[in-house]
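FAQ: What does the model actually see?

It sees only this:
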Amino acid sequence: PKPQNGHPDPPKPQNGHPDPPKPQNGHPDPPKPQNGHPDPPKPQNGHPAPPKPPIYRGKHIMCLPYFFLMGYPKCGTSKLYTLLLHHPDYVATVKEMHWWTKHNMSNDPEANELEIYQYLMYYSYNYTASVRRYPDRNVLGDCSASTAWYGTFNKSFEDLPSDALPYILYKFFPKSKFIAITRNPADRLRSDYYFFSGTEGRVPVALLNAGNLHLVANHTFRAYEACVRSGNPDFYCVHEYRRWLPSPLSPILKSWFRLEATMYYYTLKQWYKYFPKENILVLRNEDLYQNATAIALQMYDFLGFTQIPEKNLERLKQESTKEISYFSFHHMLKIQKMKNKTHSKSDLAEKVPEVDKTVYMEDRTRAMINEFFEPHNKKLAKFLEDDRFLWKQV
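And it is asked to produce this:
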């Protein structure tokens, strides 16, 4: 048809197909596909198109942690990390980054994208550096002891569902493996109270004693039970029981006595919602203390490591015979002196005589803790189908 009303002729068909539209208003043709992929953007005004962030280039392998040594604090995670270092498959990294739990994320998606990229680059850098030096080492792990029980990105469970972090890690690492080590609750809480209360500067050292430990335990258990009686779910009360402590808090009640890192059943079961049980290994501190070599070999097998060379096995056995240091009360005193700048070189160099650890917890306190945890330990033992987690023999 001829043009009418000033409109141009429509494009003429060629071979039965119309011509592609010509560029108009000075815009170039869209890039033509080659081998199914579009051409890279062409330079404009003499400047190349800005590159995409490296995470999207597709030309650099980003190494992710293959497993998580996820908890629990004061249960022997440092010992497990030392045992990992004895296997030639493991790539050594900083033990505890606490990135997924204690790292603060913003409301800016672009800033958060950069934060995630930095996390990945940390592992890529360590992997590349290690492989260049030790070509056979190829397994990375995130050994942050807060992963199992903490919220994510420093957020309260007022703002998070109970399975927030397991869900996020499942989306990032759907085939990862997880190792958790637990401990008799009374011993874990005692160690937590003395070590972290002092090193974090929450409580003056003079207030850290067996009598005040009993007082803290009593108030903590009452607060948890008051939270449950108010109709709140167990998981919520495990993390938010402090809202029911007496107000204002006395200096003694500001000490560390963390139920959330001790009531293993409520935190562990969140991980089983997303990861199969064959991807989660739950150990006991007491078994590690009895036979560290056996626990190490169990851990290597779980992670799919190659058979450990004989020379490494001998070193592992020597490491396993070393006493595991759980109670660092005097070490904590030195740290607090350093933080408060009230120390001298002679203070830090002073050798402290051995002290009977039992003096730091009264028998009545241990009995009260055992009674409180008995129903929760039963839930854990039933869930894991293993009566050792009743801690009847401890």
